Protein 1
Amino acid sequence: MQHWRKTTPDKQPRDFVHHWFKAFDQLPQDPAWFVQHADDALHLMTPDGTFRGTDGFRQWYQTLRLSFKPGIDHQLERIEVSHLEKNHYQVNLLVRIEAETLNSEATTIMAREVRRIAIDPQDNIKIFDYRVELV
């Protein structure tokens, strides 16, 4: 059971994002945990392009694995959660990313992220819109 499922609905999106980045920092070879949280109709816009659905998420994730070493450090500078309607939320993030490329170059990236998520009655979270913009 994921720890965000033990929290109140207003805290679930925030707890989920923290867990997501903690897992993402390791860049596991198998992205299954992340894919289970991507809606089949996911719309993902990043500096690397636009990706759709779970296959698109896998493609984007693979480009990151081909660019960065595991051990990334996502530092949440700001997180704001807005309730949109029923079980839908928008999560606005400002993230500082400390990473090392496969060429052993240290890099710092600032990104603004917007995620729209849905939480079902069993507290499963799906991301249906995910936008990343470099700042």
Protein 2
Amino acid sequence: MNSTNGSSETNNEILKLKVEYLQKRLEQTLQHSQAATKLIYLVDGAVLGFCYFIIKEFDKNPISLSLAAFL
């Protein structure tokens, strides 16, 4: 009976370690996703700003100006 009880405790410890590992991985994935999202918004803003500048500076067509105002 002692070996069964010891085996059960070992299995519980292994399960606890697996859960802790998965929680840590999930936290790291969440942090990475949040950082990547911020970077995507930054790049998106830079691209839209560049498009606005190009349209406004190089094309004086009223339609292009309204498109630049929309951006």
